[in-house]
């Protein structure tokens, strides 16, 4: 598979394949041309994968810290599968059967596939392998979950998985993400969960950056205008892949909380510039400036994200109830009007 053109990763992969033993990843598999730091990282992650259950139960804190620093490129496929428990899913055996069936969403999926990572080698061109396998996974999912079917945005998540692993594995991971990580709720036709995420994010904005919040309101610059894609594509349409993948590593372990944290960190970094701009200027700024601020230093963004105040209890109990009450009231009013 076409990996991102990262010569270091390629070098270390070639070196590592020479003597990987019978275990999943051999700990002695670092090649001599790696720096000591890379070699240590390679050996450490090899050990983590081989002793996964023990790390998950007894060394959780250290594992979380290591994931926040970034999973090494060549371990991502297996670690992501382990993180979301997608290694032995019965649905994997249905995959080839699903591909033989036809889905009502096929036309929609075909239309969107060309817009998914159009610059990436793997997905370039109508007959590319990337577009073919992406279509397969999206179609298979639309048949397994007919309520959601296919939703725009989800192809970016599947595309990222396909850059790391074969299509059957990517399919299993995607099914698991939809079921266990709130994504299915986000992608349901009503998109009610997206409304809730935006409501929760607005609360954080109001509480932590009141000046920016007032400015946004005065310019009628709605949270949904810039933050919807953050939640729906987990920053995959915001940042270049190396930065977005770091956020995705953390999402695989800690869930949607990282989207709130990174979103707030971005606004904190850019508050001084944003308050000077009008609505049009802010739209441009979000599209052109923000995506490339951390190309050379994703750690800076991750570090700031974990300094953001985030209260899971408040998000869950208080804000979810508030949002549900608002929605119920709206429904009642609509019924009354009808």
UniProtKB/TrEMBL annotation:
Q: What are the record keywords, sorted? A: Coiled coil, Phosphoprotein
- GO MF annotation terms: GTPase activator activity; small GTPase binding
Q: Which SMART domains match?
A: TBC
Compositional bias (Low complexity) spans?
10-28
Asked if the record carries the keyword GTP-binding, the reply is no
- The ranges of region (Disordered) come to 1-28
Q: Which SUPFAM superfamilies match?
A: Ypt/Rab-GAP domain of gyp1p
Query: Which segments constitute the Rab-GAP TBC domain?
Result: 70-255
- Name of the featured protein: EVI5L protein
Q: Which organism is it from?
A: Podilymbus podiceps (Pied-billed grebe)
Primary gene name: Evi5l
């Amino acid at each position: 598979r076409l990996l991102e053109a990262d010569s270091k990763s390629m070098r270390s992969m070639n070196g590592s394949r020479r003597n990987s033993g019978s275990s999943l990843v051999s700990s002695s598999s670092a090649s001599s041309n790696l720096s000591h730091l890379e070699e240590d990282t390679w050996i450490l992650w090899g050990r983590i994968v081989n002793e996964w259950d023990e790390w998950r139960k007894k060394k959780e804190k250290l594992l979380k810290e290591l994931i926040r620093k970034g999973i090494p490129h060549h371990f991502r496929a297996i670690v992501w599968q382990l993180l979301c428990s997608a290694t032995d899913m019965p649905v994997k055996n249905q995959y080839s059967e699903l591909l033989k069936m036809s889905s009502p969403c096929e036309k929609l999926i075909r239309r969107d596939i060309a817009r998914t990572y159009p610059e990436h080698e793997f997905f370039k061109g109508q007959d590319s392998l990337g577009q073919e396998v992406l279509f397969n996974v999206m179609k298979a999912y639309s048949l397994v979950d007919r309520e959601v079917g296919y939703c725009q945005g989800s192809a970016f998540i599947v595309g990222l998985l396909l850059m790391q692993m074969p299509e059957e594995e990517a399919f299993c991971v995607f099914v698991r993400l939809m079921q266990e990580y709130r994504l299915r709720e986000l992608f349901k036709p009503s998109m009610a969960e997206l409304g809730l995420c935006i409501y929760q994010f607005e609360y954080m904005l109001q509480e932590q950056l009141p000046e920016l919040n007032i400015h946004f309101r005065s310019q009628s610059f709605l949270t949904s205008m810039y933050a919807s894609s953050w939640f729906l594509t987990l920053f995959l349409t915001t940042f270049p892949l190396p930065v977005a993948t770091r956020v995705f590593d953390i999402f695989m372990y800690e869930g949607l909380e990282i989207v709130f944290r990174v979103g707030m960190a971005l606004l904190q970094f850019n508050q001084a510039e944003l308050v000077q701009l009008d609505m049009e200027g802010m739209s441009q700024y979000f599209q052109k400036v923000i995506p490339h601020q951390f190309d050379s230093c994703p750690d800076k963004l991750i570090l700031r994200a974990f300094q953001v105040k985030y209260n899971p209890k408040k998000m869950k109990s208080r804000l979810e109830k508030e949002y549900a009450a608002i929605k119920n009231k709206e429904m009642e009013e609509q019924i009354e009007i009808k």
